[in-house]
Structure formats: C-alpha cells, structure tokens
Records
---
Amino acid sequence: MLRTLVIGIGSHHGDDRLGWLAAELIGMRDLPNVEVRLLATPGRLLNISGPWDHWLVMDACRGDDPPGTIHAFAWPDERLADTHFTGTHDLALGEALRLAETLELLPPRVTIIAGQVSTDRPGLEVTRATHALAERISSYVAEQLAASDSCPEPRHA
Amino acid sequence: MTETRQIRVQALARVEGEGGLEIDLENGAVRDVRLRIFEPPRFFEAFLRGRSLNDVPDIVARICGICPVAYQMSAVHAIEAALGAQVSPFIRRLRRLLYCGEWIESHALHMHLLHAPDFFGRASGLELAQTHPEELRRGLRLKKHGNELLDVLGGRAIHPINVRVGGFHRAPKADEFARLIPDFEWGLDAAVQATRWAATFPFPEFTPDYEFVAVTHPDEYAMNEGSITSSTGEAWPAHEFESVFEERQAPHSTALHAVRRDTGSPYLVGPLARVNLSFSRLSPIAQEVAASIGFELPCRNPFRAIIARGLEVIHAYDEALQILRNYQAEPPRVAVPHRAAEGCAATEAPRGLLYHRYRLNDEGRVEFAKIVPPTSQNQLRIETDLRAWLPDVLSEPDDVVARTCENVVRNHDPCISCSTHFLRVRIARK
C-alpha cells in the first residue's frame, strides 16, 4: 500500500486554515500508512524528507468557481505550474512543487487538493462553510485512499 | 537636442512592501535614480503605543517574516536597557543562539536562491536548480537547519513566540538541542563549501567608497550588544544613534532614507559592513576560509557580499554548535520590574543594524516607539551605488542595464532581492 503523507498548508487567518483543518480530520481517521503534517507555507514542502510514495497536499484557494468547490490535481499540472509567488518571502505552491521536482525531492506521486474559500483575511474565524468543506475534503480523500492506490479524481462539489 | 532615456523597474514588490526602480538618463548621463518604496505605512510604531511591554516582542516580530528574531532582539534589549535589567550569561547565550538560527536561514536563502542566480545569468533559483541542483539542495538544507533551530528555541520557525523581556518563556530541554547537533555538524562543512563556491563567482569590478556601520564588540562577533562603529574610526553607544544618524523623507519613497546628520551622506549596514569591521571576531574557521579563498580586507565590492554572508553562516554554525554541545538548561528569565523609563538598543539583523527605542510609563506600557530598520538605512546607499554603477553599463541595451541594476540592488537586501527576480522593466526612450 502506498505510504502517503497528507500535508495541510494553511494559517490562522480565517478560511486559509482549510488545509490544516482537512488534514487534521484525515489524521483523526487513523488510516494505515498515512501520516499528517501541517505546514505554514508551500516553501516548507522543500524540507520534507522520507520514504513517501505519495504526497497529498491540501490547501485553500480562491478563483472563479463558487466557494465550496473542491479541485484535485495530479502533479505535474500546468494550471499549478503557472502559479507564481504570492509574496516575496516564500514560494507559491506551484513554484515550490516545481523547485522540488527539479531538485528530485518529490515522491513518485503528488496529488493536490484545493478547496475554494471566500476569504482568508487575518483576524477572522473560520466560517461554517469552510468547516463543512474540510469535512467533505477529508471524507473524499479518505474514500479515495481506502478504495485504491490511484490519485483522487478531479471533482466539483 | 536633448536625448533622454528612462529605465523603469516597476515592481520591486516587497521590501516588506512594494518598491520599484526608476532611472533617468539625459544625453548619456545619469540624471536621477530613484529606488521607490511605495509600501503603505505599516504603523508598527503606533501599534505599540499603549501596549504592555510584554506584548512588544510578539508584535515587532510581525514586521518581517525573514528576520523576526532581529526585531525581537532589538526590542527586548532596548526595553531591558530602559529598565536596567541584566540577563544571565545563560540567557545571553540563548539569544545569540537564536540569532545564529536567523542568520543561517536568512543568509542561506539569499546566497543560494536569490543572489547566486545573478552570477549565472539565471532569472531565478528555480532556473539555477536545473544546472546546480546539488548546490540548491545544500542551500535549502542549510535554511532548514536555521528554521529548525528557531522552531526549537523560538517556539516556531517563523515569528517565534518564546522571546520575552527578561529572557525566554521556556528553556528547551537538553535533548531537544542535542538532536540538532548532527545536522549542524553537517551544516558547518556545507557552509564552508557554500562559501568556497560563492568565491568562484565572476565578480564585477565595483568598489564604492563605503562608510561601513555596524555594531561591534571587543570579545565577540557582535549580534546583540556592543558599540555602533563606523569605518571612519568613530564609535558611539546605542543611545547616541539618533544624534549621529537621522532619517529623512524622500518624495519618491514611503520608506525613510537614513543618513549621517553631520554630512548628510549615506552609509552601509549589513554583512559586508560587519565582516569589514569585525573580521577578527569571526570564528577561526571562518577566518581560515576567508584567507584560503583570497577574501581581502577592506572589501568594498558589494557583489562580494555573498562571500560575507557565507562567512557569517560559517560563524553562526560554529558558534551554534559550541552552544548546543555545552547546553545545560538554567532559569530562562529574570524578573524585570516595571517603571517609567526610556531605553534603546541596536542589534545586527541579517540585513544590518536594527535600532529600537522605547519610552515606557510606570505601568510598563509603551508611550513611544521608534524603529529604524536596516532597509531604510541602506536605501540611499543603494541609490548611490546605482549612480556609480550606471556609467559603466550605459552603452549596453536597456534590458542589460535594467538587469544589472537589479543585481546591484540585490547585493544589499534580501527582502528587496527576493522581489527583484520577478520585476517587470519598462524602458522609455525619447
């Protein structure tokens, strides 16, 4: 069975916490061969080492789809590769994954689950909608991990 | 007929904010250079007013994501100076250890991912990784060590939460530090390799007549304590900083320009200034490496600041290892009674001298705060460098001029540097 590292990327700032919440929920399921790690920034992906077969990276996103939409990507994906720095002190997710790939730091399989949120402003509480989205993501990922070795399929809520 | 040429680097993105670069040329001569910092005011000095002195370390840490320790260190030393508090040698060592972690993570990032690409004509660390993966992996591993040390001692890797006025909230257990030692032993060797690698880069001949300014200490490579020293031979206690240096407003920048009051001239802070002023206090290993690579003093070539950073990474690993190996936990803080008082301190952030001054009331609340970061102190110096650099490259195409000017900026400041890798440059000719 694949050794999967579930990686939640997030912060304390409102719905940006989604990645952490979803990863924590998956951790509470005690799935075999699955470990959970929480990161504050995508750049921290470059620090991960270990004999993983699969990284499952979860993060909040914003875009044109309605809040609550779940996106799943199998790396490499051009849509992620086109993402750029969101700040000057760290890498965007796509940049971090590209750099990790170039440096041969990626496991054989990388899946990215992005949940669409409506706000990530500092000082706000996580919305009920995002709590519910985290629950749906964790259920979806758990089903996929339990059912097969394949990457979760793209899906929209 | 007047011929004008304007080179604009529109988005320097953040220096902790937004910046850009504008160069006006007229009849083949430099008419004006403006490093524009257009970040909105961040009001940190105002945020601090009315807050308990206990809140200050955590608030000022938020000023920078790369060097939060520096802001914490200047703050706690300034407040302790105001209140006459003396910390124990144990706390002093732990503070230097925390600073070692920050220097390692900040310098390793800048050397490998931000600065090194310039010497290979690469647009980014990602591009450099394609041809130099081993070096980039090494840089990331060094940065990771710095972050891990901050995590263990600071409570978390970014914006540490374990620092308080009077010491630390908690002293790590010996085994927490012991676990770091193997990585730091590897890191010391890797830092030597990284510095030797940097010394092989093709450095342009460029030696401005800098006045270096840094904190120096008679017994150690200064981080938290010492005199503010200039390469002119002058030295001042921290409480004279504002009588010697002042910040002035520039119309094109929301960041203030720091200059010497008496001459109005710029000065340089940062690793190159520190290494020039305190070379003999660097660890013996760092000094040996400097000698073996032909790093000669005084070094006024800002492109060689990457070597100065490398030497400081070596020093930081060496000193951190000594502290980690001999660590025995002691009480992590001393009592600091509150009273109305005023005090200041200067410490050495990765990017240079960082000055704080606080006035406190008898309840221990901040009535006034002044923070002078290294970025503002170097800003006018960077513009001056660009004026000196431009005549040698004006015959080049605009894109080359713009790129090399970005390189000149990047020599000085990691926060500016990390943004300059994705600048858009617009050049207008008349």
Note: The radius of gyration of chain B is 21 Å.
---
Amino acid sequence: MQPFALNYARPAVEREAATPYVYDAGLQLNVLLDGRIAAFDHALLRELGTTTSTAGSKTHFDD
Amino acid sequence: MTVLILTGEEDVTADMVVAHLNASSVPVVRLDPADLTAGAALSGEYVHGTFRGHLSSGERLVSVEAIRAVWVRRPGVPAARAAQPSAWLTQETAQALYGMLRDCGARWMNDPDAARRARYKPWQLRLAQRCGLPVPATLITTFPQAAREFAERFPDLVVKPVSGAHPQEPPRAVPTSRVAPGTDFAAVAYGPTLLQRRIAKRADVRLTAVGGTLLAARKETAADADPDQVDVRFAPPGAPWRPAEVPRAVARSVHAYLRRARLAYGAFDFAEDADGTWWFLECNQSGQFGFVEVDTGQPIARTIAEWLAGTARPGTPVAES
C-alpha cells in the first residue's frame, strides 16, 4: 500500500557537524568565534553546505 | 524605511543579504515568526479609521508603516518557540502577523498569495508551457494503467514527488530517480505519482531571477556520470557551478513566468540537453542561492539587497503587495 514514489525513498542525511558560528542579535548576523561575519567566509560556507540546495528539509521545500 | 526579513537565526544565506543592506545603511529588522511571543512581539491598532502597527525583534522596534519591503526568506512556524506552543497559538499568531503586514504598502519578495500558488509543481509545469519554456513530457496520475501506457510512450522515465516535499516520521528523502524498464506501476494507485521523461543532460542550470535581473549558473555533467544519478542535489560534488549566459528566448519566457506568477524572486531549475535546449524542471519561489554565489561569484545577494532597498536599476519589474 506504499505510494509508488516512496519506493525510491532513502533515509534523510542529517547534518552532524555543528556550525562554527553563532547568531549575534546586535548585528543580526552569524559571526565566527573570531568575530568575523560567517557569510563572508565562502570557503567555510562551501565546506558546511549551509547555503546549498538541500533535500529533506522539515519546514521548507523551496530549495 | 526598513527592510523586514522573516527568517530564522541560523539562516546564513540571509546574512549575505543583510551584510549588503548594512553596508548601504538600510535599516533592517530580522524577525523569526517562531519567536513570537518569546523574543519578538507585535501590536496593531485600528482606531478612528487609521492603522498603527509595531513589530519588535530583539532590541529593534519598527513601525509597520515604515517597512518598505518584506523578504519572506525562511520564516519559522509562528509562535513555535512560545512558552506554551500549540496549533491554535500558531494560527492566532500567523493571522496577527501576516494579516497586519498584508496591507502595509511594502513590496514583498514574494507576495504570500503568489508564493502559495507558485509552490504547486503541476501549476508550475502548466505556466512554464504557457510561457514557452520546453517542459519534458510529464504524467501525474493515480491510474496504474495510465502510468504503464506513459512508460510505453516514453520508456526512459524519472519519478519525483509532486510537492517537492520529503516524508517525515521517519525522515526520508525522495530524490528524482530513474525508473527501471519493466517496473511494476501497481503502487501508483496508492498516491499521486509524477513521472517525467528523463532528459539526458549535459548540464544542470540554476537560473536565479531577482526582479528583472536574471543570473544563470551551469554545472556540467561529467562525461562518465552514472545516468541513474539524476538528481544533482544527491550527486557527488563534481564540477563547480559556473556563470552562464541566458538564451534570449529563455529570458523572455522566464520574465513572462515571473510576471504571470507575480513573483519578485524565483530559482529556476533546468536540464540542458545535448542540443543546448534548457528543459524546465521547476521554479522554487524561495530557492537557495548562496551555493551559486559562493561558486560563481555572481552578485545575487547584492541584487536581492538592492531590490529590497528599492535601489534596483530602473525598469526592474516589481511585485507589489
């Protein structure tokens, strides 16, 4: 009784790595531990995949 | 005049835009509806034929009348982090927040009504056809026999979720997947199934539309790529995204799509075939863009910031609320 498309489902991969930045409410930006703005560190963003088109988001599927 | 950004704290992609707005000295209030009523607050007064409203988030307070643009980026579920969250409180909070904002005169990226409609993938396919974009032969059905007949006409098919959503409990992902020859379609009867002719692609194309500005990027498919690996989101990293020229006919059609959909922002996915044709797959009205900017250096965040600030170049189509 499983819908056809679910025959192609696979377990969702949860991101395990903690992001090395925290939200600064004053700046309204996420900042790295050394105070730099995380969004400017493109190498880091690429590594973390936090800006990628992801699949399986619980709340948003407009990726 | 302030730009209101509805998104969560962890949204580092939104940060890319906030940084540009900060650099331009454009006031920003970043508010996650999930933080109402713990960390964020709202108030609106309808007295003597007038309206006065205020929103606060963290230490910032903005009058609703001072909001020039609303960017609905990745808003949390309203009141999800309230002291005593409930479905009822979420509904109450959504009504209060979005109801108050709807007529504030700000520009929306994207207008909530337009956004809701634009999420329907079948609607997207039809609109793309009407706008002259090539759409791969597609069937959405609960009739197993219709699926069998479609597979006879188009033997090389992929299947993907109609909604684009992925099942939870337990969390699973349903990538666009190739349907093997001789597949049994009986289970089509248990849920709407979207089957589509597979495009033998030589590249994936992501076209990010911001107002009237189109920024396209292309990710080449490796010559030795597994043809069963259809969904670029689940494929190994491979080639980076590179800036791409938008064919004039595609640009015309995309502008028509945005106009008819009343979208100020859209992330279009295409599959480019061996002839160079861009086949429309979908348009995500709030699609990610950070990964494209990171790879290509295209100024997507800056373009969004300029649109929100109202400083985008003249002639840029604007979706009014």
Note: Chain B is about 25% helix and 30% strand.
